[in-house]
Amino acid sequence: MDRILFVDDEENILSAFQREFRKEFEIETAKDPEDGLRMVAARGPFAVIVSDFRMPKADGNRFLAAVKKIAPDSVRVMLTGHADVNMAIQAVNEGSVFRFLTKPCPSDTLGKVLTAAAQQYLLVTAERDLLENTLRGCIKVLTELLALVNPEAFGRSSRIRNRVCSIAEQMKLPNVWQLETAALLSQIGCVIFPAEVQKKSCTNEQLARDESRLFDMHPEVGSGLIEKIPRMEEIAEMIKYQGKHFDGTGFPLESRNGNDIPVGARLLKVALDLDVLEAAGMSAKDALQTLKERNGRYDPQILAALRTTLQDAKPKIEVRFLRLNQLTEGMILGEDLRSDNDLVLIAQGQEVNLAILIRLRQFARTSFIKEPFRVLVPTQPNFEKVEHHQ
Predict the structure, then answer these.
(1) For the chain, is the Cβ count within 10 Å smaller at the N or the C terminus?
(2) Is position 138 within any domain?
(3) pTM, whole model, 2 decimals?
(4) What is the pLDDT of residues 323-335, one digit of tens each?
């Protein structure tokens, strides 16, 4: 049953709504805009929100505009006894009102509007769910493709994902899922060059001129791939500017600098450069100090947040040495997983998933994998104790 919130300062009108529509909808009521906003925040989502216009404390336009910010999917309806053209225009522009009705409104008319509004809510949420599921599927396919084609690159993106998320949470940034996705797909453009170039870049080894030019291209290549997916435009922009310095230098060669660079790109820049220093053997503390000494490259607020996350970080993993038959989903590789001829199969830092397990088991049928190998196991109750191998 669809949930509908009526907001009106006249209790007799609210009671009438309850009696009239309780069999068709799940009705909630609020006596003023403040109470209505509290209910939307605490008891939402509501399929439809119907508001009177003239109420104490705030009018219906201001109320519905506020509702739009905290519950954008809810369909908004204005019901008032003081209607004019300007009011209707304002309601549509500020609150994105679905219908504008005048009092007294016949019950059958209001009932039809509520039904249409509930159907509109269903269409909006169904489309969003479809897009989100499609988006998640695309991201999964792309990351698994990167893991197969270039395990070094995917290992790097897996390592920086948690770093990016922890900094974003410390800074209380919105849409962390976008930042996490940008981290996971930040190296997707690396499919254009050989794995050995990626390995050199991850450990800060000197690249040849042609290799360096190729590596500098990968953010724009990755961005070009990602921007073709619906709702990924902002993520594509973060990926494009991941090599851009806060002072405007770096790639791409454009004039953007400071806060004009997407915050996701600024986060990626810090996380990726920190990862390079740690891969070269630096402690996180020393790596952070090195970043601070590179004047102009990084957003100072992100460096400050990184420092806080490093100070607050507590060990949540246990180091073990395991064999392939002991590997389970959710474990993290603490070293490159290599074949007997030293081919990197899965890169250090990658979280084990079902696709990886299947790939490794298929490989082990015809070739050898160097065992035991170092694994990081999250210290959670659902991970059973596994015998250690030294």
Answers:
(1) C
(2) no
(3) 0.58
(4) 888 888 888 888 8
